[in-house]
Design a protein that fits this description.
The structure holds two protein chains of two kinds. By secondary structure, chain A is of the alpha/beta class. Chain A contains 17 helices and 16 strands. By secondary structure, chain B is α/β, with parallel strands linked by helices. Classes of the chains: A alpha/beta, B alpha/beta.
């Protein structure tokens, strides 16, 4: 029997249509396609895919269930390890993880593991899930700081182990970057809400409007709880550091996306928070956040949406799928180009940006070829809105308010492999420990820490 | 939900509310602010803390009805609740014994000045307060501030009470009389803080101002509230809201505070609040 060499395609909204709305781009598999795709899996003995999964899902196990049409069993297999499958099934960089290791790659395309995970998560969510089995209470209390992917995963796993978990969230809603950062058209907020509801059904309590370090101190948490996990993310925007960056019209990617996603500015004036964009929007940077900014701008009505990036396409850190979607939608890529300064009018509104062309030299510390400015190649591009998406640094609020906690050069909390910090009972994971990375790595870190916390609690008298 | 325990109308469009928020009240200090949201569709707006009562678990806010959110807030009654009330945010005022201090409040900026005046007085300072408003009806908390001030001056633009003119006139007068001022704290309209900082700069008198830029999250995440201080970008929400008045780029702040004026008009019209 020969195996189909390519993945079953996942239907999606046509680019021309989807840039007019904020609805999710792909529709997902139907049951029949999911079963067909699952049957592509060779169920090979050494299943290298599982090594590539930061949250340790039994991938061949759940795919076997899908192939047999037992979707509920498949969901059980996934949820034994992953508390947020509808999220990871949408935003994971599968190509570098499970799918990157799939044996089928030797013949053609890997099994569409991500699409299958997404299908199963959506299937059981829409069908109405069985409530999870309650765990035997241990009587131990754990505080989780931040309800992003790291915090939610850690909280869910700890609850499954029988611990009494309270999550403290600064914002008015749960999800962290899933709420404020990733746009509706990639990750519908209704889905995030339901995934969080599942975690709450595991017994996790979430307290909103609490900024740890301000509303409640770490010292208080350590008094009231047996252990604390810090998952406060990489919330601090980085700037270009060029003249004119404070002009009206220049946003950090964080401000722009928070206004649009969390505050729903795309529904203004039904929602009160506004966002203002001009006819030409330039996004600086080429990671996933930059793609989100550029694609959001088209949906908000920009006539032209530019990505301006100092290296070449090869070095762009965004996922291939995001770049592909952005191109399909008409985002223009201006590569090997770096901004030098912003221009504004007399009232201080942004009118343009001066750029300089770059060429690639020898590889730098990141292994990517270093961009070098070409002298005298400066030119101006007229833009009305600039979005700075060149990365985020760890949020300094908790470390600043708790100086005993050891941090590293960029303000990341120093931890070992399992998230232990220098303070007994205090654990940290996700972007606050590693610097800005991916949702799934943060989930993986939350998972490891949950295990380490469980061990710590068992040994603690 | 955070209940409105008390509501007062201080002047035509300035209201006072005591909000039940025990966690915030327990930690609140002079100079800090909160962020509130009225309802699910609401905007997050920052307001500086005007007072707090740890026993009662309440935080007092005083606000002028200027945009959609503050206008809707003004329509809420005692017993109603706010969706979100987050804080205390920002760095508290640096309260120490400086000697003689001058506390200047303009318009609704008088409200956040009050806990600072009180704290400075309790720390043993000789407190001179100058309160300014367009007219006498817009003056706030006169008696409360007087209680903790060694001397109180009032100025109004129209002369309906106190000195006719600006708070900076009195400040200049104090300096001219040889008052040994160790620190000036000024809170009010951006232009007032700019003028005050210009007066004291010549005499190298330490001057602190409390800035009120547009914010979204209030936790250092979005950078919408960035201000230029001494040539560096600072976030008012986590690095401030108080900064060295001699270092602040007030012109950029005024400009950035106008970023969404058109949207504000539209939102007010849609909501039927003029």
């Amino acid at each position: 029997m020969s195996v189909q060499k390519t993945k079953h395609p996942m239907p999606e909204q046509k680019p021309k249509e989807r840039i007019k709305n904020f609805l999710e781009v792909p529709y997902g598999y139907d049951e029949k396609t999911a079963i067909e795709e699952a049957k592509r899996c060779l169920q090979c003995k050494n299943h290298p895919c599982t090594e590539g999964c930061p949250v340790e899902i039994d991938i061949p196990g759940f795919i076997a269930c899908v192939a047999q049409g037992d979707f509920e069993k498949a969901a059980e297999v996934i949820k034994a390890k992953n508390n947020l499958p509808a999220v990871s099934g949408r935003v994971c960089p599968y190509e570098n993880q499970c799918e990157g290791k799939c044996t089928l790659k030797k013949l053609g395309e890997p099994v569409a593991i991500g699409r299958l995970e997404r299908f199963i998560a959506d299937y059981v969510r829409n069908k109405g899930e069985k409530p999870p089995k309650p765990s035997k209470a241990t009587g131990k209390k754990v505080a989780v700081v931040g309800s992003g992917p790291a915090g939610l995963t850690c909280a869910g796993d700890l609850a499954k182990m029988g611990h009494d978990v309270t999550v403290f969230e600064a914002f008015h809603g749960p999800g962290g970057v899933l709420l404020y950062g990733i746009p509706e058209f990639r990750l519908p907020k209704e889905i995030v809400k339901k995934e969080v509801a599942y975690i709450e059904r595991l017994g996790v309590k979430i307290q909103y409007d609490v900024v740890v370090g301000k509303t409640i101190t770490m010292q208080e948490l350590l008094k009231d709880f047996d252990a604390v996990f810090i998952g406060t993310g990489a919330g601090l925007p980085r700037w270009l550091g060029i003249p004119g960056e404070n002009l009206d019209g220049v946003y950090s990617a964080n401000e722009y996306l928070t206004r649009v996603n969390m505050m729903k500015a795309y529904k203004f004036p039904e929602y009160d928070t506004p966002v203002k964009i001009g006819d030409v929007v330039a996004t600086f940077g080429a990671g996933n956040v930059a793609m989100d900014c550029a694609r959001t701008s088209l949906r908000l009505g920009a006539k032209r949406s530019l990505i301006i990036y100092r290296r070449s396409e090869q070095e762009m850190p965004a996922r291939l799928e995001e770049i592909h979607h952005a191109k399909e939608e008409g985002v223009e890529f201006i590569l090997l180009t770096n901004p030098v300064k912003f221009f504004g009018d007399e009232q201080g509104h942004l009118t343009g940006v001066e750029c300089i062309k770059m060429e690639l030299g020898e590889p730098d510390d990141s292994g990517r070829r270093r961009p070098i400015p070409i002298e005298g190649s400066n030119y101006r591009i007229d833009i009305k809105t600039a979005l700075v998406a060149i990365g985020q640094s760890p949020n300094p609020l908790v470390p600043q308010s708790f100086p005993e906690l050891e941090t590293q050069r960029w303000g990341n909390i120093k931890t070992d492999e399992d998230g232990r910090t220098n303070i007994p009972g205090v654990f940290a994971g996700g972007d606050i420990a590693t610097g800005a990375a991916t949702v799934i790595l943060a989930m993986g870190a939350g998972k490891k820490s949950a295990r380490a916390i469980d061990t710590y609690l068992k040994n603690k008298k | 939900m955070y209940e409105i325990i008390e509501k007062q109308t201080l002047s035509e469009n300035v209201k006072l509310m005591k909000i039940h928020a025990p966690l915030v009240a327990a930690k609140a200090k002079a100079g800090q602010f909160i962020i509130l949201r009225i309802n699910e569709e609401g905007e997050r707006i920052p307001l500086t803390i005007a007072d707090y009562d740890r026993k009662q678990g309440t935080v007092t806010i005083i606000f002028m009805e200027v945009g959609k959110t503050t206008k809707l807030l003004g329509k809420l009654k005692k017993g109603d609740s706010l969706q979100n009330f987050l804080g205390p945010l920002g760095v508290p005022s640096d309260i120490e014994n400086y000697g003689t201090v001058v506390c200047i409040g303009g318009g609704v900026g008088i409200a956040p000045l009050y806990p600072i005046v009180r704290a400075l007085k309790k720390e043993g300072n000789h407190v001179i307060s100058i309160l300014g408003a367009r007219n006498k009806d817009l003056l706030l908390l006169e008696e409360q501030i007087e209680e903790y001030s060694d001397k109180l001056f009032i100025t109004t633009d129209d002369g309906s009470k106190g000195h006719k003119g600006f708070v900076s006139d009195i400040l200049q007068q104090l300096i001219d009389e040889g008052t040994d001022i160790k620190m000036v704290m000024a809170i009010g309209p951006v232009i007032m803080m700019k003028v005050v900082a210009n007066v004291t700069r010549k005499y190298k008198i330490k001057t602190l101002v409390s800035l009120n830029p547009i914010m979204v999250d209030g936790t250092g995440m979005c950078g919408g509230c960035r201000v230029t201080v001494g040539g560096e970008v600072k976030f008012a929400c986590v690095d401030g809201p108080e900064f060295d008045g001699h270092q602040v780029d007030f012109d950029n702040l005024m400009l950035r505070n106008k970023r969404f004026l058109d949207h504000e008009d539209k939102a007010c019209k849609m909501a039927g609040v003029q």
